[in-house]
Amino acid sequence: MTDDRTDTHKGLRAIALFEAAKGVFALLVAGALAAIGPDALQHELERVLARFGVDAERSGTAMLDAITPERLHIAIGVAVIYAVMRLFEGWGLWGHRAWASWLGVIGAAAYLPFEIYALWQHPDWMTWGVFLLNLMIVLVLARDLRRRRGAG
Question: Which of 88, 106, 125, 146 is at 20 to 30 A from 52, Cα to Cα?
């Protein structure tokens, strides 16, 4: 028989690694956006659109014109803030901090209504996978908080 507390700690550690990986990925995206710059980003998006047969001049102009240095800096800033939050949460979960479980359960639960809507619109395996992963994270973190409340 396994100890419930040990199982919870394993779950927290797994979620901590997942959140840290999201944070590292967000930092990589921010770094890539900073390195590539708005002009090269526009050129790459035009290339990708052309590969899919989309005429950037007709249908993608508004999206491509929206890529300005100012907006790119905002996107980089948002990615860095997101990364810091995910890394901070991962660090807290790794250390079994209650505040990190609260942060995680609130953050993951906030996505659930949007994921339910996405399931309603596009019920494919990827949408189900994302929904079930976030639901599992909410349940593991809620179980940890419930266990802490009972122990306190």
Answer: 125
Cα(66)–Cα(106) distance, integer angstroms: 32
Residues 6+ apart with CB under 8 A from 76: 30, 33, 34
Are the C-beta atoms of residues 49 and 60 closer than 8 Å to each other?
yes
Cα–Cα dist 105/42, whole Å: 37
Q: Please choose, from the candidates 11, 70, 67, 77, the residue with its C-alpha nearest in 3D space to the C-alpha of residue 43.
A: 67
User: Alpha carbon of 78 to those of 26, 37, 52, 152: distances in Å?
Assistant: 9, 16, 28, 37
- The DSSP secondary-structure symbol of 60 reads S
Query: What is the chain's pLDDT, residue by residue, as a tens digit (152 residues)?
Result: 344 566 567 889 999 999 999 999 999 999 999 999 888 888 888 888 778 777 666 665 666 777 888 989 999 999 999 999 999 999 999 999 999 999 999 999 999 999 999 999 988 999 999 999 999 999 999 999 999 888 65
